[in-house]
Amino acid sequence: MNTILIIITLLLILLFTNKIIFAIAVFLAYLIIFQKEQFIFNSDQTILTLNDKINFFKNHNMTLAEYEAENKVKVIIDNNKYMEVPIEGSVDDTHKSPPPYVNYGDTILLQSNAMDDRYLTGNRDGFNPSNPTGDNMEGVYTTNEIQSLHEWVIMPTGGSKMNTPVRMNEALYLKCKDKYLVGEQYRKALPYNKENETCGVYTQTQTYNNKWIIEETAPISSDAPGTTQGTTSGTTQGTTSGTTSGTIPVTTPGLGGYLRYDTHIFIKNNTQYLSGARQYGYIDGETNQQVYTVDKNDGNYELMWIVKKQKEARIPMKGLIKLWDTEPGLLENESRYFVSSSANNDSIFGEHNDNLTPISNIIDANCIVNKFIMVNFRKEENVKMGQVYTDLNDKNKIIFAVKVAGSDGIFSDINDAFETEYQFDWYKNDSKVGILILNSPATSNSPATSNIPANTYIKFNSHLVNTDDTSNNGNFIVKTHGDNFYLLTTINSKLYILQTDNTDLATKLVKYSDGDEISETSLLNIETHTNGSYKLKTIQNNYLFHGRELKIEMHEALEDGSGDNPLWVDFAINRVIQYVKFYPIQMNTEEPTSCRMRLKFTDMDNNEIIYDTSNNNVEIIEPTITPGTDGFYNLPITNTGGNPELIVDAKGERFIKGGKLTTTVANTLYKFKIQIAGTTEIYTDIGTYAKNDHNGLTINFEIFKTCRYVKVIILECSDQCDLKLEIY
Question: N or C: which end of the chain has fewer CB within 10 A?
């Protein structure tokens, strides 16, 4: 349109002016048209209305120059349009052009953020038992197979939106072949949360529970091509905050009111969220491939998905310096920071509890059933296994679930649930025990073993029960035998085995030598009772001691030096982790809602992991002055060595997310530089950070690298510099 107007104008000039004026007009027109032709728009350049972008700058308190510098682009303005051209040579991934929009009708991949190489796949083996259709190809899993098995078509709820950008927080369908992804179907899948009965996810042709909403995890500020600006939410670019229960902190620039590829999202069905890489496998030999719909309090970053065009490595979530509001920094040496609990407010990471202080290698804790205890090793450890012991009060089973996470705080399940039968502290080979009769005999005419008064230990001489001998209450030896056990005792240096008589069911002793075949009348099981007692019976269901109620007590520790001989139950981990969530489900206590337990862990060399509760071995080595009681260092703004410095030594290389510097009103910090080094102490620059209107008295800085030393160089500060440093 503009070109036509220019041509008409030239013709009019030609009619009413001389040739010189006409030549000048032609030259000016050429310049305008030439400049116009230079705007070559391609898929890597963002085109928005100028008013939209001006509003963006205004809403985010930044100038055009600041935007260009921060995003490594050159902005070209043409009339009412503007264009962003990436500056060539930029290598910083955070400043590349934003990824393309996702349109309705696109075929996408959904990569689970919980683990590497887990992509959503549907139309697989399995069916929905709560809505049977006769189709056995309704299963949904997260696997790593050929790309075609992971393809989903993103569909609008109305046909008019096909081939238009997908708006965030708008209902849509996800289709695998000719079936819809459906969620919140009847299934109890979470062992620590049986109240959630709608964990099931399937692919079906049904038209209910098949609408999903994609929720954003960062502020949204730009818009799709050819549309008006979308709603802006969250915090402005560059802000980093902690997270409260189930809330993702804002750490990166917003990506717009429309969905883009390579972004982290939540996928919501009604009230619950799609969760992948869960529990046990679908493919033989694999783990963590189940898919559920869960409450948002069941996780945080692990509930996220990444929208992909093709399979590739997970995109890390940078900017998350603090994983949760009360996360302890590495310079905070209080021992209580090793353990937290979900018994209080934070349902994702728990809260500190002074009563959960580890002692050497053991965490000794009161616990609440279905409420986790979280262990924070303060750095990543290559953990082989964990071990748990509980006060096993006359119950026959312990059940627990475990989740683990690396330094990124993204948790994944270990197994479904661990469940162990017959875990009594005495139920261990070669344990020496006493057998206590709890109840009164049923009749006075019964055989000798029935005449033993209540609360009396069972004693034997070579033939008969001896109730008068009180010299040794622990005169039985436990021997495990497959899923059963038998009892031995020694009388006059001879070994006897306990068994029933098939004729009168009397309990008796029979001489025994090592290697003798074990009779069925000696192989024993345990029958538990609601009052906390139990009975012993053979595999033929014949009761010992005529069915009297019993208690078996450990009376002598084993030679392994384990004190009161707790039976430590092993659970394999075999991962590099920093966090462990332990969910007690049933812990053998009389009280169903509470429990007591001990936890410990071993590394790949079978060494027990020790908690250094006196000092976590991370310290500020420069300056050598002592900080105040509030943790602040008072530094001069100049010294003979140049700018003041703070140097942190982690006493070994570890992954550092970043940190924060807190200053005071009286002595304000304006600018500083961050450098890092490995064990060689060769420092490299990370970046320069400055105070602005948004960060107030606390300035956050990002590192996200493995290092040993972190150096803070103070560049600008008023008068004295009162500084408190923390790193994470």
Answer: N
For the domain with range 432-556, which CATH number is right: 2.80.10.50, 3.10.150.10, 1.10.3720.10, 1.10.10.60? Answer: 2.80.10.50
Q: Give the integer Cα–Cα distance in Å for 377 and 337.
A: 9
C-alpha–C-alpha distance, residues 544 and 449, integer Å: 9
- DSSP-assigned states of every residue in 216-279: PSS------TTS------S--TT------TT-PPP-S----SB-BTT-EEEEEETTEEEEEEEE
Q: Which residue has the higher pLDDT, 403 or 368?
A: 403
C-alpha distances out from residue 49 to 70, 135, 148, 188, Å = 21, 50, 38, 50
Note whether 374 and 394 are within 8 A (CB).
no
The one-letter code for the residue type at 220 is I
The pTM assigned to this predicted structure is: 0.69
The whole-angstrom separation of Cα 601 and Cα 363 is 10
Q: Pick the closest to residue 51 from 74, 81, 75 (CA basis).
A: 81
For the segment 287-337, what is each residue's pLDDT rounded down to a tens digit? 999 999 999 889 989 999 999 999 999 988 767 888 888 888 888 766 667
Q: Could you confirm whether domain 619-727 is CATH 2.60.120.260?
A: yes
CATH 2.80.10.50 fits 107-308, yes or no: yes
- Do the domains 432-556 and 107-308 match in fold? yes
Boundaries of every domain in the chain: 1-38, 43-97, 107-308, 335-417+582-603, 432-556, 619-727
